[in-house]
Amino acid sequence: MANFKTFFISQTLTLTLLFSTLVTATYHHNISPSLVRSREKLTHLHFYLHEIFTSEKPSNIVIDPPKVVASSPLPFGSQVVIEDPLTIGPDVKSKEIGKAQGFYLSATQRPGLELEIVMGMALTFLEGEFNGSSLSVLGRNKIFNEVRELPIIGGTGEFRFARGYILARTVKVDYHKGDATVEYNAYVYHYSSTSSSSSPHLFNQGLHLCHGDY
Hints:
Elements: H1 2-27, H2 34-37, E1 41-51, E2 60-63, E3 79-87, E4 96-106, E5 116-125, E6 134-142, E7 147-156, E8 160-173, E9 180-191
Antiparallel strand pairs: 1-3, 1-9, 2-3, 3-4, 4-5, 5-6, 6-7, 7-8, 8-9
């Protein structure tokens, strides 16, 4: 009887360890960075973003504005949802190449036009080589600075593993109505999801990727 108990306990421990090993084995595995470093690109993107409030179909909407009396057109705590067109030129009617979708928050308690916002948005491109790919941006934007720097913290599609920055410069703005055109120069390091590679399956485990269907 004692031998049977010993055998049973031994087999139970063995099966438990085996099961644990199998679960761990399918949970993750290491990939050598050298497999992708040679494919890293540095790309410069130049385009214009248009914030439109005064339209039958505005691209910016203020949600739940703060219930305070303030001289600022965007009082502290204001939240704005955006779907701004991105164009090839400064004219809003020039060729549209993408859109910026996201939000920004008024993050300063200074009175007047001292606007400081925190922006979070996805820049999705709808034309050319980067059709269907996007860049993720999150950072502080001090509107009155001539040039502002925004960090690029990620991306999708042709911009996988993206990192970099954007230099934003206001071309024209109406601070009371809110309409604005901003020039963007983006510099981004990234790895394409569709470039030829000896091991493309490393980042597409069992997935069929479709680009341009956005």
